[in-house]
Design goal:
- By secondary structure, the protein is mainly α.
- The chain has a domain of 56 residues.
- The protein contains 2 helices and no strands.
Length: 95
C-alpha cells in the first residue's frame, strides 16, 4: 500500500503541478492581455496625439495660409498703389 500512497501523492503532486502550470499560463495570458491592452492604449494615445498634432498642424497651416493670404492681399494693394497709375483726369490733362 505504500506504493498506492506514493502514487496518490504523486498524482496529487501532478494535479497540483498542473494547477500551478495552469495558473502560470493563465497568469501569463493575463499579463499578455495586460501588455497588449497597454500597447493598444499606448497606440491609441499615440494615435490621438498624432491626430492632435495633425489637427494642430492643419490649424497652423491654415493660419499660415490666412496670414499669407492677408499679407499677399496687402502686398497687392501696396503694389497697386506703387504702380503710379494716374487717375483718368490727370491722363487727359497730360495729353
Amino acid at each position: 500500500m505504500p506504493t498506492l500512497v506514493v502514487g496518490m501523492q504523486s498524482a496529487f503532486t501532478l494535479v497540483v503541478g498542473m494547477q500551478r502550470a495552469f495558473t502560470l499560463v493563465v497568469g501569463m495570458q493575463r499579463a499578455f492581455t495586460l501588455v497588449v491592452g497597454m500597447q493598444r492604449a499606448f497606440t491609441l494615445v499615440v494615435g490621438m496625439q498624432r491626430a492632435f498634432t495633425l489637427v494642430v498642424g492643419m490649424q497652423r497651416a491654415f493660419t499660415l495660409v490666412v496670414v499669407l493670404d492677408t499679407s499677399f492681399g496687402r502686398r497687392i494693394s501696396i503694389l497697386g498703389r506703387g504702380v503710379g497709375l494716374d487717375p483718368p483726369d490727370e491722363q487727359t490733362k497730360n495729353v
